[in-house]
Here is the input.
Amino acid sequence: MIVQTIQLALAPVFVLVAIASIMNPLTSRLGRVVDRSRELQRLYSQTEGEEHDNIVREARSLDLRIDLIGRAILVLVVSGLFIGLTVVLLFLEELAGIGLTGVAAVAFIIAVALLMWALLTFLRETREATKTLRIPEMYLEKERQL
Here is the structure.
């Protein structure tokens, strides 16, 4: 029976690998956003007028992005903990003979729901990034035929 439990525990472990794979780009993005926010903080007191307003606008966007990435990472960690709980419950059921299949299923469903929530938060962050990083019209020269 332990072999079947190990086989049953493989699916949650694959979800754990997916969670780790999603965390990698999130942490990279967080590092880049934090670096850019530090640069903007350095430039803040050195600018005036429209340039200063642009710094403040970008800083506000970066602050939102830091928050979204932090939330996505937090939700992924909690999802990973529920995956771990699922695996533990499966083995406890097998080793202790306690009927925990329903609880393990609920833990797994919660983990997948949290994963989906984190992905939606990641999507919001990427949408925010692309919204603020649009190329200004003047640089596109759309009136010119190239």
